[in-house]
Amino acid sequence: MSKRKFSIVLISLVAVLILGALPISAQEPITVTWFVGLGTGTNAEQIAIQEQVVADFNAANPGINLELNIAASNETSRDLLSTLIASGNPPDIVGPVGVSGSNSFNDQWMTLDSLVEASGFDLSTFDPALVDLYRNDAGELTAIPFAVYPSVTFYNADLFDEAGLSYPPSEFGAPYVMPDGTEVPWNYDTVAEIAKILTVDANGNDATMDGFDPTAIEQFGLNFQWARVRLIWSYLQPASFYDAAANTITLPEEWHQATQWYWDRVWVDHTVPNSTYAASDLLQPSGFASGNLAMSIVPLWYTCCLDNSVGNFNWSIAPVPASFDGEQHVAMDADTFRLVKNANRSEEATAAAFTALSYLLTDAAATLGSAYGAFPALPAAQPVWFDSISARYPGEIDWTVAVDSLAYANPGPLHHESNVPNYTQTYERENALLSLIEGDTGATVDLEAELATFESDMNAIVSGGS
Amino acid sequence: MAAVNVNPHINTSPFFGAQLRKLAIGASVTLFATIILIAYLLPLGNMTTISLKSQQQLVGSTDTPILPMSAKVFVYEDKEYEVFQVPMQDGTVKPLALVRKGRQDSDFVDPDNPDAGLINWQGSWRTLEPSFVFEPHFENYPRAWELLDFPLLFKNTLVIALTGMIGTLVSSICVAYAFARFPIPGKNWLFLVLIGTIILPSQVTLIPTYAFFAKIGWTGTQLPLIVPHFFANAYNVFLLRQFFMTLPRELDEAALIDGAGPLRVLVSIIIPQAWPAIISVGMFHFIFAWNDYFGPLIYLLGEPQLQPISVGVQVFNFQYGPNPELIQATSLMAMVLPLLIFVFAQKIFMRGVVITGVEK
Amino acid sequence: MSPTNSAPGSASLEASASGRPKRSTLQQQQRTWGWIFLSPWIFGFFAFTALPIVASLIFTFTDFSLTSDQPINGVGLRNWQKLFSDPLTIHSLGVTLKFALIAVPIGILIPLGMAALLNSKYLWGKRLWRPLFYLPYMVPAISSVFIWQSFLNGQTGWLNRMLRNFGFANPPNWLQDETAIPIALVLIGTWGVGNAMLTMLATMQGVPTELYEAADVDGAGPLTKFRRITIPMISPVIFYNLVLSVIGLMQYFVIPYVITRGTGNPNQSAYFFNMHLYKTAFTFADMGYGSTLAWFIFIIALALTAALFATSRRWVYYASGD
Known about the structure:
The complex is a heterotrimer of chains A (466), B (360) and C (322).
Chain A: H1 2-21, E1 30-36, H2 44-60, E2 64-70, H3 77-86, E3 93-97, H4 99-103, H5 113-119, H6 128-133, E4 147-156, H7 157-163, E5 176-177, E6 183-184, H8 188-197, E7 200-201, E8 217-223, H9 229-236, E9 242-243, E10 248-249, H10 253-269, H11 275-279, E11 293-299, E12 315-318, E13 332-339, H12 347-361, H13 365-372, E14 375-376, H14 382-392, H15 400-405, H16 423-438, H17 447-462
Parallel strand pairs in A: 1-2, 1-3, 8-11
Antiparallel strand pairs in A: 3-13, 4-11, 4-12, 4-13, 4-14, 5-6, 7-8, 9-10
Chain B: H1 16-51, H2 55-58, E1 69-71, E2 73-76, E3 79-87, E4 93-100, E5 105-109, E6 119-122, E7 129-130, E8 132-134, H3 140-148, H4 150-181, H5 187-199, H6 202-215, H7 223-226, H8 234-246, H9 249-257, H10 262-273, H11 275-291, H12 294-299, H13 309-319, H14 324-358
Antiparallel strand pairs in B: 1-8, 2-3, 3-4, 3-7, 4-5, 5-6
Helix pairs in contact in B: 1-14, 3-14, 4-8, 4-11, 9-10, 11-14, 13-14
Chain C: H1 3-19, H2 24-59, H3 78-85, H4 87-119, H5 126-134, H6 141-151, H7 158-165, H8 181-189, H9 194-205, H10 209-217, H11 222-250, H12 254-259, H13 273-283, H14 287-315
């Protein structure tokens, strides 16, 4: 009977499939897992490079099997890591992970002092200030520096040419030359001014003209790509909003001003795209990378995502503009790899994990650094980085700006991702504020009232509302 | 239902008016259905045109062409320049290549007469209409197929879907049989508990379940996505039980009297009568597995070689950044197989579907 | 679906069994076999439902956190009290219930209308239509989100291009506008009605033709026939779909989660209860409170289902009720 035949075929097919699905177990060397997904490192080119690094490491260390785990999406990577940790199955190495991503798992990082000592890892080649960044309150080392991403101004040279504007200055402290020949300081007022000239509608009117149509914009002047609200505030004026002694959050006056400044750019000048424009096809794959946005103030990791520009438009980088206080302050992101605590891990396995960690931080630092667009903290890796980034972006890009920026970096307490209690919830609340400002309802919102609500919500979160 | 023609009430006298009226109604109902269907499937049209565009064709605003159109370019002194429709002073409109963009005036070159040199034009080039040529990018499909490793994703999805399907069929048939035919004490309450599990949000059980699978070392394998289906599922048991209840008891009782065991009754009497229901359950499970996203996402973390298509598409979206044309191409390819299966199994499937509704 | 509904069949069996005492050993044997056939579910129920659910009930009385090193402490009823003071719980429950008020009727009416259309005796080429209307149901949920995102794109999406051509100068930005996003989610939801449509269609085809013929004799128009015959005759399947749709909406998660990138924005207008649950448990790592939220929505879904069953006696018609 055909049905019986059908069942036999089906059952044998299934049997084969079940056998195929069973895990293959074999005697293997010590496995060290490396989880990628809390920060950069998840796009296809980066994965290929990371896989090569893993292969090279495994070839050189036969007793260790380094295994790469790439999270499936940035929405869920944090949740996946929590789940892995909670179920007693944490990865050994997590990274690249920034300050923000580390804060969410503050309890989970292994301190490295004894491992550094036992293995003789040389910390002295790093900038001591960078090493101190990773010491916890007790002075223990929670990570070793890997990469830094100073913020810079990315600008589209073609769009400046089309508008007949001169380029942003390439040195710290240098002025900007306006179209009428006057020299003005390179600050956020100047940026706001030229952003208007660089914002153009479908009729060719720019944002300074009367006939400008804000519903049909085809080119934008400015954005802070993928920035969180605390980063935007810190650009406009670095400050601290958390008082650890009192465990309270108070928005400094400058950040009220900064919020108003940003809102004016989105809703008065229309030089910064609102969320509708940002999501539209006009600004894909991302604002500046689309070629339809003239300036983006963003940390250097944005070099991850500008491959679209090659052959399409010319761009370069300039220092960040001066903040409200008239000084240039560089907000800097920093990534590293961290070891995760795991009570069930043998001492031998921990040593193997540290060996792999050291490899990523030193031997692979140049390769990984250029893949991530990260400027390596390890001095020896820096020349290699310059070569590879220049090969990737063959235009005339002034990379010395990135190096010069390091000297202007904000100190730790003013870091835009400094930790506060219940960090993840404050992170969400900050995102909600920014999306309110940029969203459709933002146009008519009472900013001061929203900031007051924000402040009280944030205080409820840090005081342990959960 | 097929007895319309022998209906004695039908007036058989020649009456063209009625025929014509029937034709008109048929045409308008069909037209109406066509309009509804087009509206319903419109997003697929949107998807198809996007899947044929290049990155360059995608970037744009409200007036970008719907079809994959490229701006016409002209090569002048070894560089490519876009061609625009430029209104000339004599009132004619000429296709000219834009060599230098400016706010007040721009320089063009005439593709028909490049040797004449640059033509200066006063006005904003943004107000000009670009010249377009139709240029679909069919290569997006093979590219997406390769980048995404579709054969592997299909294989993984089929492994998970088919083994799970067998599991849920075997177990659900047994359990439904128990509920339909056996005098188990407290059966009604057990059945209520079974139905109650439908209401349970899966988040309630997620963490303990995940921890359990991690403990026994099944995370990173497809087993957590397959094995639980070998323990029956409320929807399927419900559907099968409803169907078994409609089957006459006389046949199984006769078989029992002839000395057949309950297992034999199930295999040789119940199952042969229940094919439509069984195939429906199989297809429901198949579609479920085809769509399941969250389970594979957490259990197959870091095992790309085991991931099914739903996760594959999402991972692809994540790793290749915003490449809408490739994403849309993958979406289209992902629905072809279930659609084919449905078209072929339609008749049996429809018979099975009746059951879910017929009896309460 | 409730014990009272399924009672007649089993009651008659037990009555007949006890009416013939000589078969009591057979009945004993039958019971054993029943348990054997039931055993896969009993085992699965304990392993994958009962034990995890008890574990999560225990979590509701603790401060169990996914990312903390601290030992787990009992906190009594604190998590349960927090349900009523947490503004996000109230907000997200409101979003979910309000959305259900629009989405449930639409989720019944659209498949009902489609089924009626496909069941029309005047429709040409019936075979062809079914797979076409069923097709979107087979698009993986994640893919359908991507497809709709570009269809609903404020600038270049087809929907807004059409609206502009029809004279709406400023159509809404569906996914960025807090008043428009529920409508956008309902539109996306219409792609999930394939199954409801098929069950309704199949049941409609099973309605005895004599009923319609009798109505023809009485001179009833097509609308009257649909209201007086079709709807009552298929009311069980409408009820079945209604229950599933209410339960489904109480668990509504993947689509708004992917569309809003997990935020529920604009202005938390798409912050559904299960997103709050998921975020609390996994993103904020607060399993104790997360489990409490899961239990809370479970209780609400249970109450709604019970309420639906209570009303069903008034309008659901069982042909085989005898």
